[in-house]
Amino acid sequence: MSSQRHAAHASTIVTMQLGVCLAVLLGLMFFSGGLFYLYTFNYDIGPYFTITRFIHFYAGLASIPFLLAKYGSTGYRFAGYYLRVPRFKKAGPPGLIPRILSPLLALDFFVLYCSGLYMLFHYYYTVANISPAEIKPVQLHLWASILAVPLLAAHLGSHLVDTARGLARERRELLAQQPLSSESARRVITRRAFVGTVLAGGLGLAIGFQNTPLVHKEFAGLFIGRIPREERGGPGDFPVETLFGKRTVDVAAWRLRIDGAVEREIGLTYAELLALPIATKRIRISCVSGWSSQPTWSGPRVRDVLEMAGADPMAKGVDFHSVSGYAFGWHRHRLVGDDAILATHVNGAPLSDNHGFPVRLIVPGYPGQNMVKQLDRITVRAEKEKFNPDFHLTSLAGSDNACARSAAAEA
């Protein structure tokens, strides 16, 4: 009977330990996820997207084994009680709140993680719909995240005191056994080995699917790094993602037009753009779909080009428009530094069509979706870019406010 009691107790302790680890990872994931959406909806926030992306994707991937182990452990205990296994019956029934919340959380987290992994491994994830409901995965991920917050708050609140008491009770029991019996020592080692294995699995997932040789792998329409075959081994050997597709630009006829709140509208040819003072910077570009890369970019600074047109010094916004129809609106004060570049070259070579030929925007610390490729127009606006979350995540390109609020990567 004692061994049965210890077995049930051990299962409870494992569940608690997994829950504590999972709570930390979920806290990181949801905090970074909140920042993620502020960037997606173009809130005026500092250049911290690189670390936000790092935390969100690493914590999310690392949490998967913990989530599976937690539900496995919880399900094992629930099944033991309801199947009337003596050691679990003796430990008592699950609480009312866990019995209600656990199935709801399991379903919500299934949707949350499946939609997140879909976006990580699938082309054009804001356009492709998930059958049979034809829901965009980014919308599904957003609403599952919102629903998870109150469910998790209630769940953690109901378990926090019990978890703290359970772990403290185990510590007292172990301290009371001096020296530890061989059976107690074996149980402690087994639990630690199990939790350690789950931790190793989480770290393996996070590291394996982020910035490793796996960026070159693709199968059955799914992919990780999004590096086109024609770019591999060359200066453009880093990921590509373009929602509205790339265009073939006739550089002889192409002009980069600067208009709006300026003293004079200008149209720069490619040769004129190349003749401007050039800045060369190694700038990391991080995509909302998960990947990150740090090429070396070269091109004139944004502020210099705006000054050529006599941009209104009091102007608050700048829209960048692509030949593809994609557009994004920027808060102007984020573009005045030394590192905001209109890149014409990457890693010493002219941009390819994949990476935005003839010119694209590069600004460190912001999502790749903001770095509009194949620019043909820059419009200076007097009014400030508004924070207007669009939960439908549809592109507004071509409207008066040209900011495309989709979570689509133009990286």
Largest sheet: 5 strands, mixed
- What number of domains? 2
- Tally of helical runs: 8
Average pLDDT works out at 79
- Please tell me how large the radius of gyration is: 26 Å
- Give me the strand/helix succession: HHHHHHEEEEHEEEEHEEEEEEE
The portion of residues assigned to helices is 40-55%
Alpha carbon gap, first and last residue:
62 Å
> Oligomeric state of the chains?
single chain
Q: Say how many strands there are.
A: 15
Structural class: alpha+beta
The main sheet orders its strands as 4-3-15-9-10
Query: Uncertain spans, ≥5 residues at pLDDT below 50?
Result: 1-10, 391-409
Q: What is the molecular shape?
A: elongated
Strand content: 5-15%
Can you tell me about this structure?
With 411 residues, this protein is of the alpha+beta class. It folds into 2 domains: 2-210, no CATH class; 237-381, Alpha-Beta Complex (Sulfite Oxidase, Chain A, domain 2), CATH 3.90.420.10. Helices cover 45% and strands 13% of the residues. It contains 8 helices and 15 strands. The strands form 5 sheets. The protein has a 5-stranded mixed β-sheet. Strands 5-8-12-13 form a 4-stranded antiparallel β-sheet, with no helix packed on it. A hairpin with a 2-residue loop joins strand 1 (218-219) and strand 2 (222-223). Helix 1 (2-40) runs antiparallel to helix 2 (49-82) and helix 1 runs antiparallel to helix 5 (137-176). The chain is elongated, with a radius of gyration of 26 Å. The model is unreliable at 1-10 and 391-409 (pLDDT under 50).
Distinctive features:
411 residues, alpha+beta, Sulfite Oxidase, Chain A, domain 2, 2 domains, five-stranded mixed beta sheet, four-stranded antiparallel beta sheet, 8 helices, disordered N terminus, disordered C terminus
